[in-house]
Automatic annotation (TrEMBL):
Domains: entry comment: The middle region has homology to RecA with ATPase motifs including the RadA KNRFG motif, while the C-terminus is homologous to Lon protease.
PROSITE patterns given in the database record: RECA_2
Function text: DNA-dependent ATPase involved in processing of recombination intermediates, plays a role in repairing DNA breaks. Stimulates the branch migration of RecA-mediated strand transfer reactions, allowing the 3' invading strand to extend heteroduplex DNA faster. Binds ssDNA in the presence of ADP but not other nucleotides, has ATPase activity that is stimulated by ssDNA and various branched DNA structures, but inhibited by SSB. Does not have RecA's homology-searching function. Plays a role in repairing double-strand DNA breaks, probably involving stabilizing or processing branched DNA or blocked replication forks.
Naturally occurring in which organism (per UniProt): Candidatus Nanosyncoccus nanoralicus
Domain RecA family profile: residue ranges: 71-219
Upper taxonomic lineage: Bacteria, Candidatus Saccharimonadota, Candidatus Nanosyncoccalia, Candidatus Nanosyncoccales, Candidatus Nanosyncoccaceae
Name of the protein: DNA repair protein RadA
InterPro entries: AAA+_ATPase (IPR003593), DNA_repair_RadA (IPR004504), P-loop_NTPase (IPR027417), RecA_ATP-bd (IPR020588), Ribosomal_Su5_D2-typ_SF (IPR020568), Ribsml_uS5_D2-typ_fold_subgr (IPR014721), Rubredoxin_2 (IPR041166)
Binding site for ATP: G100, Q101, P102, G103, I104, G105, K106, S107
Amino acid sequence: MGKNTSQFVCQNCGAKYSKWAGHCNNCDAWNSIIEDLVVSEASGKNAISQAKTSGQILKFTKINEITVTSDKERLKTEFPGLNEVLGGGILRGSVTLLAGQPGIGKSTILMQICAEVAKKHQVLYVSGEESASQVKMRAARLGADSDKLVFVSSTSGNDIAKTIREGDFDLVIVDSIQTLAINEISSAPGTVSQITNAGNLIIQAAKSTDTAVIIVGHVTKEGTLAGPKVLEHLVDVVVNFEGDRYGGFKTIRAVKNRFGPTSEAAIFEMNEKGLSEVQNPSAALLAERQNTDGSIILATLEGTRPLLVEIQALCTTTNFGYPKRAASGFDLNRLNLLIAVIEQRTKLNLSDKDIFLNVVGGIKIKDSAADLAVCLAIASAAAGRKLSEEYVVFGEVGLGGEIRSAFRPDQRINEAKKLGFKHAIAPATIRDPFVIPVKDLRSTLIQYVNE
């Protein structure tokens, strides 16, 4: 009988090592190598030989005879935007992985979901991080006092899976997967093997009982989901909770959804009663805006929702030989690329300028159509001139300085019209009287950055 041994696996890239090391030579990550249990070759051969005779013939069903869960059977939350992100609500039998930074509001929104679902359905809240009194205080503050909402504190994946199988629950919250461990593995909670196997147990229990499960996951300092990548493949829905933990708007978007689109986004803000959905984020983001140099209004999209946000740029003369570039809410590499395009294609000298870019409200912009607004903001700040209050801006900028088309321009234009803007500086490919067409970056900067 062979003996099981251990190996060390990098949680970031999956590279394997015979002993622990603080640095992964494959992906250059630090403190990402965790011990994992390895089944010996003899044990593996015995298991394979037993598996050849222990299986049974599966019962198959004709595809046209399979019953499908309708949208009416989804569990609705109190947030219409979150329901859209999830594809119409929480589907029975689905497993959702919710990830977000510490303190951003994951436990808060989960308790609010419990409060709404528990009005009609049985809900189980499992916490491996907090005591019963801590959860009770949050539940009392958010109004989650239904008899159908029950609580248990446990870090045993075996016990949680057994409870899901034996209990009659419609929704189960597990907070969080990094605290769970199963009896068959001796490694510490949070390791690759514990997360993978505990997740597997819970997913199998959810599928066998048609119970909806939401699992909370931690994130790394880079903002990616902590733990093995296989966990994201196992679950049905992966939802990211993004934003500034200390203020501003927070965004929930699905990066994976087997039952709906991944293009939707829900925008929230925190108040004394918990998280509330922002119905008109564009008006809220522009309420305190002052039209100064370096301030440009961008018509962007959060999923399929049009949104107007303010892009602010600040240019100052550098005191060092190498100018500083910094961005909040915008990709720094993209900013450096756009600065290079401005210098090369418009002959505006920025080599002696420190450039700072900010997206107001804590919104993170990933829309390629934000390029033109960023370039106009930088040029406006560098020249000390401002754009007219009548304009919104959108469009992608190519390396040749050309202005390229944007995704769903009609929605952007309609949102700008609702808030009283007169014109949109946008790509020339858009045929609309509201649009002032532009073809290249140089002529745009010369014509529209006026005093």
